[in-house]
Amino acid sequence: MTRTAIYLDHNAASPLLPEARSALVAALDLVGNPSSVHGHGRALRHLIDSARVHIARLAGAERKQVVFTGSATEAITQAIVGGAKSFAADAVVISAGEHAAVGKAAEASGLPVITVGLLADGSIDLDQLAQVIGEAQGNLLVALHWVNNETGVVQPMARINALVGPTRHTLFVDAVQALGKIPLDFAASAPDMVAVSGHKIGAPAGVGALLVKAHADVVRLIPGGGQEQGRRGGTEAAALIAAFGAAAAAFTERYEAAGVAALTARLEAALPAEAVVFGGERLGNVTNFAVPGVKNSTAMMGLDLLGLSVSSGSACSSGKVGPSHVLAAMGVPGALADCALRVSLGWNSTAADVDAFTAGYQSILERQRAQGQAA
Ligand code: PLP
């Protein structure tokens, strides 16, 4: 098989959209500081304001509810660490399937952390969540993800909203993997705060946003010079924000045009019969699967040699393949979880990409079987 270069890791980072690239490059040529009142400053301010309109539109939010940050991790930390103070929370409730950004922010809040389990299908155990809420003595800050980055499992957000919304407790949602793929209606729905990220929808990394309702005006992590209506200090990264806005305007149409769900179905239909696919109700762009006995570290190396980029779960900063806390929480035995590969498709994925993966994985399987027989 000849070496190709095929990207099947959109949940880690989505390739730059052409619209975002153009906006980024155009904005890089602008001079000045968006807070300056002169013409140069006003041009940058205009870019930021336009981007805010696009993010607000995509997330069903009001413009004033959008606070730009340097990443979703920052937005999440602001929501949880800042939110814990603002709402005088007594404990933070997370699920066992959260991204490290949520788990570590909960730890950093200094409050007790209550972890609700996942069911075998990857969904959050809502009976357990209801019990935690029912038994709460004080105020809870409930921080849950909408779409799981490792499995693509879509959490029952309407039920979570119905469970937490009418209570005195605060609800924060990590919508990083949902933005642009599932309709969000922030202004009209229960969450007090929602975090989103640029680089999951075709903008560069380094820009995110916290959506926040007026009553949830969280304690600032970065007060600084009063930017973002005093909610996040630091001179705005106008070029990245402009790219985020352009990506928000273009992403959903491109994602839908790629026919991602059909491509994922094609991939799953071609998996070996013994493959186990993890997760029940999933977003149509992720397949997290394992073939017993085929270790993900070996498979990923073999696929990489063929120019096929996939992942074993979340892209961890060490670059190592570690055990998945999400699969463990779903009750997947460790030996099977060690074989789990995540293939995540996106706006520029094609049937040829999927077929190259199928052929590449098959060749690794055959090689491993031949070596097993020779041994
Ligand atoms: N939450 C989820 C579900 C994610 O998938 C990610 C990124 O992988 C993050 C949070 C963190 O986003 P960022 O890289 O913008 O900090």
Task: Describe the protein.
With 375 residues, this protein is α/β, with parallel strands linked by helices. The protein has 2 domains: 127 residues, Aspartate Aminotransferase, domain 1, CATH 3.90.1150.10; 236 residues, Type I PLP-dependent aspartate aminotransferase-like (Major domain) (Aspartate Aminotransferase, domain 2). The protein is built from 13 helices and 12 strands. The protein has a 7-stranded mixed sheet with strand order 2-8-7-6-5-3-4, sandwiched between helices. Strand 5, helix 6 and strand 6 form a beta-alpha-beta unit. The chain starts with 5 loop residues before the first strand and ends with a helix. Bound molecules: pyridoxal-5'-phosphate. The site of pyridoxal-5'-phosphate has 13 residues, from helix 3.
- Report the strand count: 12
Query: How much helix, percentage-wise, in residues?
Result: 40-55%
Task: Give the uncertain stretches in residue-range form.
Answer: none
Bound molecules: pyridoxal-5'-phosphate
Radius of gyration: 21 Å
Q: Distance between the terminal alpha carbons, to the nearest Å?
A: 24 Å
- Report the principal-axis shape: globular
Sheet of most strands? 7 strands, mixed
CATH architecture of the largest domain: 3-Layer(aba) Sandwich
Count of domains: 2
Name the CATH class of the largest domain: Alpha Beta
